[in-house]
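REQUEST ID: PR-0412
SUBMITTED BY: lab tech R.K.
PRIORITY: routine
TASK: structure prediction, single protein chain
INPUT:
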Amino acid sequence: MNVIFQVLTLLGALGLFLYGMTLMSEGLQKVAGNRLRSILSAMTANSFTRVLTGTLITAIIQSSSATTVMIVSFVNAGLLSLTQAVGVIMGANIGTTVTSWLISLLGFTADISVLSIPLIGIGFAFMMFKSQKRKSIGEMIIGFALLFLGLTYLKNSVPDLSANPEALAFIQKWTDWGFFSILIFVLVGTVLTIILQSSSATVALTLVMASQGWIPFEIAAAMVLGENIGTTITANIAASVGNISAKRAALAHTVFNVFGVIWVLALYKPFLWLVAKIVVGLGGEDPFTSSASLLYAISTVHTLFNITNTCILIWFTPQIVKLVTWIIKGHKDEEEVFRLRYIQSGMMSTSELSLEQAEQEILHFADIVRRQYVYARQAVNEADDENRFDTLFKKLEHYEQISDRIEFEIAKYLNNIAEGELSQEGNNKLHAMYKIISEMESMGDSGYNIGRILQRKNLHGQKFDEPTVKKLNHMLDLVDNAIAAMTDNLREGFSRIINISNAQDAEHDINEYRDNLKEEHLRHIESEESGYLRGVYYMDLVSECERVGDFAINVSEALVEVN
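STATUS: complete
OUTPUT:
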């Protein structure tokens, strides 16, 4: 019974550590998320700034996974090339080593858990403010406190092998098999990281196990190497149902870390000897013979591995890009445009980052709407060609079904985001997105309705003369302008206040032209210059186009409400 309680306490301590890490990371991202994204997009001019950017951002938000998510979203949006993304990922690997130093310097040498309860009190005080930013700061402080409180419980709940040598003594037996033991613990580190979904948590466990005397220095170093592989497998699992860019970025991360582990294992003894010399040179004791500097030595392994690996592979970035592009080939079929591109891999590390994925998917949705109206124009111009019109009508119907599906999938994703915590700005975006996808789905319905009106016209043997087709083409030109203005505003409007005069002008032009065509049509009916039934279909098409203009302006107006 005592063993079960001890195991549950250990799991609870680990859960508290992980929750604290998540809360701190999410709070930091909410406080500085937009600024971090701005830095990430600006500081990627060369290899050095890419690595530096990845290092700094990961060191700040304490999550290489969150940094990788931002990188992938920028690659998807076309703001970063895969080459730039690889450089930032390398930097993120260096940045994630800050966690191990934080734990080594504060978590073991000083009992920071004494400050945890007062810090939670300070964090709670911040949470009482109405300001979303102050609440996020409160989250960050409470997360920091819980992280070290969890670490303290983790240390205290781990069995003391010197007092209870029978408890988990099998782990010590695994350390006596020479280089095979090294490989076993590389695998242990990999599997633990995949299970815990956090390399930071596995590093903390490794530091605890080493500090308690469970494992010697060389075994702890092997676990650190495995953790570097495990964190990339987690990213690959997340990207497995994602788009091509996500898969390539995740695979580049794997190539980078696996190559590093291979060369370090090939030079394992010299590598650890160098680490020991560095620790001794900085005033510590030899980690092979003394446990006093063991924690610093393990953190040095983690840091030296990532820095050295980056210094070697940064020169081979183009080759890594070529390799992952060759392994993961792009889709050549047109059907790819009909699939969700940005939210297939599920929720990201925070609701705020997930919103960014939804933004990109909505832009993709706008592109699909634009393509539908290319076919709508062709259907108007080729309505008298039965075979050609049937093909175009099927495409319009297909696009309408796609619009329905995409609206449903984005709405489902937004529902999941709504369950998380969002800043006030994030909530504004969320509400606007619901309205936007509804309006865009209506645009998809209107595109199909244009096809149905033309189909009914053909069934009744009606044909438009050349002047009528010309007028409809001009109306579709105005619709194209409205969709272009909507798309431009979508590209700009989620992050800053925008001027939607372009959309207002486009909608005004549509309404004005619609009014002119109505007056002209009424005069023609009175003078019996056109067939009544043909005129009905003509005005139905004009009205449907005018409705599209209304939907487009509604999207831009929803964007204004965000800010």
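NOTES: The chain has two domains: 2-327, 342-562.
REVIEWED BY: pending
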